[in-house]
From TrEMBL:
InterPro entries: Cro/C1-type_HTH, Lambda_DNA-bd_dom_sf. SMART domains: HTH_XRE. CDD domains: HTH_XRE. This is Helix-turn-helix domain-containing protein. Transmembrane segments: none annotated. It comes from Brevundimonas vitisensis.
Length: 195
């Protein structure tokens, strides 16, 4: 069976689709779920390895999952073409309106001083978090707000306007929605270290 070769134009359109998804703060799994497919299926479109991305019906289905339009996809494609080549892109998530931009730094540590996330993590537990990684559903996340407040919560999901998290005063049963405009950075918790 011959190996599938990706057309540069399809790959570029897939990269524009990935850009739209990241701007909305969605993982491939979340976007795929919204479009009625797996994260792997979504990833194949983004990498240009699944045919059909130039078909209008496929484009409408994919961008609708991102609360966008085919015109938004075309604009994202033109932004990519106009953008100068970036040296080494930084990874991470800093909020800038509805878009999350790269956050500086590597893995960081934070010690919990309360039991807001018990039994997931109790007071005294040290969390390692990575500003270069977006959290998955039910994964811990560290959120820095624009006013400098640091929140540690369990990530539930996101849409174009808000982040949905669990935890805080009252325990893990408390579900909160945080406006993206109030968020500076979102980082995935990668380890819980008990002392």
């Amino acid at each position: 069976m011959p190996r599938f070769e990706t057309d540069p134009e399809i790959r570029a359109l897939g990269e524009a689709l990935a850009l739209l998804r990241r701007e909305r703060g969605l993982s491939q799994a979340e976007a795929g779920r919204r479009a009625g497919m797996t994260s792997q299926g979504w990833g194949l479109y983004e990498s240009g390895r699944r045919p059909g991305l130039f078909r209008p019906d496929v484009q409408r289905r994919l961008v609708a999952a991102l609360d966008a339009s085919p015109e938004d996809l075309a604009l994202a494609r033109s932004r990519q073409q106009a953008a100068p080549e970036r040296p080494t892109p930084m990874l991470g998530l800093n909020a800038s309106g509805r878009t999350f931009l790269p956050a500086p730094g590597g893995v960081r540590r934070l010690q919990l001083s309360n039991d807001d996330l018990a039994p997931w993590a109790a007071s005294g537990v040290v969390l390692e978090f990575d500003p270069q990684q977006w959290p998955r559903r039910d994964q811990g996340c560290v959120i820095e707000t624009v006013d400098g407040t640091v929140l540690v919560r369990l990530y539930e999901g996101a849409d174009s306007q808000t982040l949905t998290v669990r935890g805080g005063e009252g325990g893990l049963g408390v579900v909160a929605r945080i406006a993206r405009s109030d968020i500076r950075t979102v980082s995935a918790v990668t380890a819980r270290l008990e002392r």
